[in-house]
Design brief:
The chain is α/β, with parallel strands linked by helices. The chain is 35% helix and 15% strand. The chain contains eleven helices and 13 strands. The radius of gyration is 24 Å and the shape is globular. This is Glutamate decarboxylase.
Length: 455
């Protein structure tokens, strides 16, 4: 007798009546609804993305964006010959960013999309390295020992860049007196082999901006004494999509003469689903021509500068959608709303007897705090992070960098989608769990959650 498998009740069909954890491809096919249910049920144990206050990455877009995303699932960003309109939109986007970042000559500028800021950082680093190598060789000098200067608070992608591309990583350690790289001690690490200095517009650990103008001033002083002309790359993974709207008078971008390139994450405060990043160079001369490949692909010849090849085109379209949908006023409104939530939360957290703020959300909408010295010997911020996770909130606790690595902090990233109502719920849970921990008569019997991923 014929039996329609679709009539078999859910959870008793082949596939769902047995284990869902396949480590070998199954012998037979299954209904699409069955396969969907297996995968969907498996991911039910993931955290709620909207309550993930550790990540900078966007977790919400509107229904029109969702529809546009579905329309473009099949577009390959690398295939500019087959999808010329998508390629044109990519250019529209980096030209919009060049304008936001005050490129001095909008007709002489170059940029590209990337999978995320990590790839964009590596492209920026490669351009710095190649420019330095060309200048050294033209002068008849050795070009085998490049170094790159950065704060000890950089994101791990810079460690990857230096490791993968044979560049010595020289870090300026953060200290209690100098928690940000502000130019102090640069003269001790810069030399003729320095390819550039990386400045962070939004430190991952605390959300604070490093002072670009102070770094430029120190490099100017170094050049006056030594003749070394050191460029700056701005890692604006988050801040490069916040500062143009919330701090438009702040000079950090191409208005600063030494800034040669800027990267950002479209999928952070660019307000797009993961993953898309962007990098723009001050002018075409800042990107060595030999790094741009012209390849024949699917019937066409096209230039490409990327570490990846095939990748989704949908997020590039989503970025353009955001630019069109929101405009300058819309981005300002959203970033301001996120900052208002950050300032509200930081103000309230700062009133707790147990805590002291490191930052308050005045730069990017991110703030961090630590336990007051001597407040308790019964619990740590790792325990508070664990207690909040029980309530569904992902709020990371982790050590700082450099000379501050003995200090543990907690940090909250306020993104589009973290409403004031949710913020009040979060604050209630922080207060309740802090009061619980403060009521302990003896130390917690375990160390709490280990340091969480907080990038």
């Amino acid at each position: 007798m014929y039996q329609d498998d679709a009539l078999i009740p859910t959870f008793s069909r082949a596939g769902e009546a047995t284990t869902a954890r396949y480590t070998q491809i199954p012998d037979n096919s299954m209904l699409p609804e069955t396969a969907y249910r297996i995968v969907r049920d498996e991911t039910m144990l993931d955290g709620n993305a909207r309550l993930n206050l550790a990540t900078f990455v966007g977790t919400w877009m509107d229904e029109s964006a969702d529809r546009l995303y579905a329309d473009a699932f099949d577009k390959n960003m690398i295939d500019k010959d087959e999808y010329p309109a998508t390629a044109a939109i990519e250019e529209y986007c980096w030209r919009i960013l060049a304008d936001l970042w005050h490129a001095p000559d909008r007709t002489d500028v170059i940029g590209t999309s990337t999978i995320g800021s990590s790839e964009a950082c590596m492209l920026g680093g490669l351009a710095l390295k190649r420019r330095w190598q060309k200048a050294r060789r033209a002068a008849g000098k050795d070009a085998d020992k490049p170094n790159l200067i950065m704060s000890s608070a950089v994101q791990v992608c810079w460690e990857k860049f230096c490791n993968y591309f044979d560049v010595e990583m020289r870090q300026v350690a953060t200290t209690e007196e100098h928690p940000l790289m502000d130019g102090t001690s640069l003269e001790d690490v810069v030399d003729e082999n320095t390819i550039g200095v990386v400045v962070l517009m939004g430190v991952t650990y605390t959300g604070a901006y490093e002072p670009v103008m102070k770094v430029q001033a120190k490099l100017d002083s170094i050049q006056a004494k030594t003749g070394l002309d050191i460029p700056i790359h701005i890692d604006g993974a988050s801040g490069a999509m916040v500062a143009p709207f919330l701090q438009p008078e702040l000079e950090w971008d191409f208005r600063v003469p030494r800034v040669q390139s800027i990267n950002t994450s479209g999928h952070k405060y660019g307000l797009v689903y993961p993953g898309v990043g962007w990098i723009v160079w001050r002018n075409t001369a800042a990107l060595p021509e030999e790094l741009v490949f012209r390849v024949s692909y699917l019937g066409g010849s096209m230039p490409t500068f990327a570490l990846n090849f095939s990748r989704p085109g949908a997020q590039v379209l989503l970025q353009y959608y955001r630019f069109l949908r929101l405009g300058r006023s819309g981005y300002t409104s959203i970033q301001q709303a996120s900052q208002d939530v950050a300032r509200y939360l930081s103000h309230e957290v700062g009133r707790f007897d147990a805590f002291e703020l490191l930052t308050d959300g005045s730069d990017i909408p991110v703030f961090a705090w630590r336990l007051k010295p001597g407040h308790t010997d019964k619990w740590t911020l790792y325990h508070l992070s664990e207690r909040l996770r029980i309530k569904g909130w992902l709020v990371p606790a982790y050590p700082l960098s450099g000379e501050l690595e003995g200090q543990t902090v907690m940090r909250i990233v306020c993104r589009d989608g973290l409403s004031r109502d949710l913020a009040e719920d979060l604050l209630h849970d922080i207060r309740e769990e802090t009061e619980f921990l403060d009521s302990l008569d003896a130390p917690m019997p375990h160390p709490g959650l280990p340091p969480a991923f907080h990038h």
